[in-house]
């Protein structure tokens, strides 16, 4: 297996949000942090080698994204997603959160309605509310831990609020769904019918577990591709989020120009030489490492699911289809979110994301990051088992 995923790496004192802000986040430092979507694994050696060579060159001036940068994105999408894209469709972004935030600014006006589908990644809420757009929620339907879209409510929202944009999470964070073709077809048919543009956050698209398949939103049809902006990056896949390099694929030239204009006005298109190099390197050389990672994460997910459902009752979870995040249903404890959180932090020494960070629909749930060595995962779950007893 490429990559020593069992190795426990001391990440403290590396200006690391996950570890160096434990006191600010959880009120104490002796906590196993399993919250922010940041894995505890070293990036692939191919990218570390490339970055070392670039540093040794010694001159770190302004960088340019040359043809090889765009070719690596095109080849990756063809290889992993069987999607043909044109280099002109690619718009640089310093992150996927800036991508869907800037796109929302570019495609809507203050007061326009934007749909999100909670429980969902917290910055979705901010992208809408902080920019004075009207937030409209179409909550996912929870079928005993398996989440699906609410198509009937989506139609009612469209008829009542006339939304301009849907911000879609595909695969979904935090519930771990890899949406099927049929699910996306039904949803995008509604978007076409009611004139809703789709901003699809696909940052977890490479992290498909247990043989599940990722369906790019824009691949549903040419008509859907024409109304879809696909935001992605290698950052979660290869654990290089700190290099702030992402991109948006926009086939529609009118939509693309609107988004590019906002980026130009904000002077956000420069990027950095390390991020450019890292993206190109992992997309050209990172497949073997990724395949090993997916095996490891799949095993972690199965281990955690079995442990939780058998030994942490009444806490329950569902095996995720994608991502390295798990959605824990703690409602059976019949306690408040704060009381449960206190057990996790104070008695078990484990820190999760509160479910309500993902919307009111997350009350009673917690998000757990399993992108860590197996021993770390095992220790955290055993600590919770002891605390519950």
Write the SSE topology.
Layout: H1 17-20, H2 22-26, E1 32-33, H3 45-57, H4 67-81, E2 90-93, H5 96-107, E3 113-116, H6 123-129, E4 134-137, E5 141-143, E6 146-148, H7 151-161, E7 165-169, H8 181-194, E8 197-201, H9 222-225, E9 228-232, H10 235-238, E10 246-250, H11 253-266, H12 273-285, H13 287-311, E11 325-329, H14 337-347, E12 350-351, E13 353-354, E14 365-369, H15 374-388
Helix pairs in contact: 3-12, 4-12, 5-6, 5-11, 7-8, 13-15
Q: Would you give an account of this structure?
A:
By secondary structure, the protein is an alpha/beta fold. It folds into two domains: 17-44 and 287-388, Aspartate Aminotransferase, domain 1, CATH 3.90.1150; 61-285, Type I PLP-dependent aspartate aminotransferase-like (Major domain) (Aspartate Aminotransferase, domain 2), CATH 3.40.640. It contains 15 helices and 14 strands. The chain has helices spanning 17-20, 22-26, 45-57, 67-81, 96-107, 123-129, 151-161, 181-194, 222-225, 235-238, 253-266, 273-285, 287-311, 337-347, 374-388, and strands at 32-33, 90-93, 113-116, 134-137, 141-143, 146-148, 165-169, 197-201, 228-232, 246-250, 325-329, 350-351, 353-354, 365-369. Helix 5 (96-107) packs parallel to helix 6 (123-129).
